[in-house]
Amino acid sequence: MALGSGEVAAGRLTLGQLLVFLAYLAQLYEPLNQLSHLGGTISTAQASAQRVLEWLNTPDHSANGTTPTPRPAHGVDLEFSAVGFAYEPGRPVLKGLHLSLKPGEIVAIVGASGSGKTTLLQLIPRFLEPAAGQVRWCGLDLKSLDRQSLRQQVSWVLQEPLLLPTTVAENIGFGRDGATRAEIEAAAQAAQAHEFIQRLPQGYDTRVGDGAARLSVGEKQRIHLARAFLKDAPVLLLDEPTSALDGESELAVMAAVQRLTHGRTTLMVAHRPETLHIAHRIVRLEGGALFEEPARPTR
Ligand SMILES: Nc1ncnc2c1ncn2[C@@H]1O[C@H](COP(=O)(O)OP(=O)(O)OP(=O)(O)O)[C@@H](O)[C@H]1O
Ligand SMILES: [Mg+2]
Known about the structure:
Blueprint: H1 2-9, H2 15-56, E1 78-88, E2 91-101, E3 106-110, H3 117-122, E4 132-137, E5 140-141, H4 147-152, E6 154-157, H5 168-173, H6 181-190, H7 194-199, H8 217-231, E7 235-239, H9 247-261, E8 265-269, H10 273-276, E9 281-286, E10 289-292
Parallel strand pairs: 3-8, 3-9, 6-7, 7-8
Antiparallel strand pairs: 1-2, 1-4, 4-5, 9-10
This protein binds adenosine-5'-triphosphate (ATP) and magnesium ion (MG).
Residues 117-118, 159, 239 line the site of magnesium ion (MG).
C-alpha cells in the first residue's frame, strides 16, 4: 500500500488501479492459505495409506490346508487336545487345555474377565492358531482343513456385534451368498428381529452401521443371530450373547438362541443363569485350563 501510494502520488498509477490491485491481492490470500495446509493433509494421508498397505501385505503365516471341511449329517464333534496359546511370548493365555464336544452338544464356558474365553473361541474359525496341541474337527486337525470351507461351517455371534455400513438386509445376507429376501426375512423372524426391523424407517433397506440408524446392542445381536440362522452352520460360537440386554430383551434373544443351538455343536461364553440353563455342560476357564463345573439342578 505504501509503495502504491507513492506511485499514485507520482502519477504513475491511478487510484482505481491501486484499489483493484488490493482487491485482487485479498482474493489471493485464501488459496495460498489452503496450499500451506495441503502439505499436512498429504502427509497424513500418506501415513494412513502406508498402514493400510502394510496390513494388506501382511503374509498369512498359518498355512492353509487342502482338505474340505467335513459336515457329517449327524453333526460335528470338536476336540481340543493339550492346546496352548499366547499373544506375547512368556505370557500364555491357554495352557494344556483339553475339551471335547459331541455332535449337537452345548457347552458353556465361564471364567473371570481376561481368562481367555474369547481367545478359545477364536481358535475354531482359525482367527488364531494354537501354539501347542491341536484342535480337531471330526478327528481332523484344523490345520489340515481348507480355511474357507471351515469358516462356512462355523457361525459366530461376537461379544461386540459389529454391523457393516450397509442395509439391514445385506448385513443379514452376508450369512449366505445369494440368499433371497424371503430367506433373509425368515431368518430375521427366527431371530426375533423381524418386528423391530419393520419399525425402522425403511425396514430391511434401512442403512445401519457407522453414522446411520442407531440400533441397541440387543438389536445388533439379533441381526447377528439372524445371520447365523441364515448361514445354518453345524458349529455355533456365542460370546456372551445376552450380556448387554435388559430382562425382557434377554428373554427374546435367549428364545432365539435356544432355537439356533438346536442340533448344532455349540460353544458359548456365558455368565447369567438364564443363559447357562440351556447348556448341557458348564466348564470353567482358569489359569489357561478348563475345569468341569459340578452338575447343577435342571430347571
Ligand atoms: N489381541 C491381543 N493382543 C494381546 N493380548 C490380548 C489380545 N486379546 C486378548 N489379549 C489378552 O489375553 C487375555 C485373554 O483375553 P480374552 O479376550 O480371551 O479374555 P476373556 O476371557 O474373553 O475376557 P472377557 O470376559 O473380559 O471377555 C487377556 O489378558 C487379554 O488382555
Ligand atoms: Mg471375551
